[in-house]
Amino acid sequence: MTILSETPKRSLFETLGRFAAVAGLILLVPVANAESQQAILTEMSTQEEIQKFCTNIADAARDQRYLLQKQELEKLQAEVNERIATLENRKTEYEDWLARRNHFLAQAKANLVDIYKTMKADAAAPQLAEMHVEIAAAIIMQLPARQSGLILSEMDAQKAAIVAGIMSSATDPNTSKDPS
Question: Which of 23, 28, 174, 179 has the fewest Cβ atoms nearer than 10 Å?
Fold first, then answer.
């Protein structure tokens, strides 16, 4: 009977032990579940805090970025204004130089034409033939027609034809500035 009576006792103890183990696991699951839920809630809370923080500083960050961009644009505008001022000064200097040059050329041209007006045709023709054809044509055009004709008749025929061609192109309003 001892053998029979020990078997049910073992089985009862084994059953109770198994029950206790299962009960312990069941009790631990809510604790583990609660810990994981707490971790999830903490993570969600952290995410919400991060979101709130980012939302709260977004306007300040945007304002700061706009301020930096505005400062950069103001710096660039100052550089552009400085360059414009430099260019305006150079433009004024160039216009002054151009006015003096044009005045000098007008005087030189008038004096040069006056010189050729006083020369005899046979002396003026070889000198004008050696000049750049456009300059020679400009001088001859400003001489009296009789003297121009005499100078052209004294020049080499080919050179006189080129000069006469330039002179006729200069009087044609449909001709461009470039005689070639």
Answer: 174
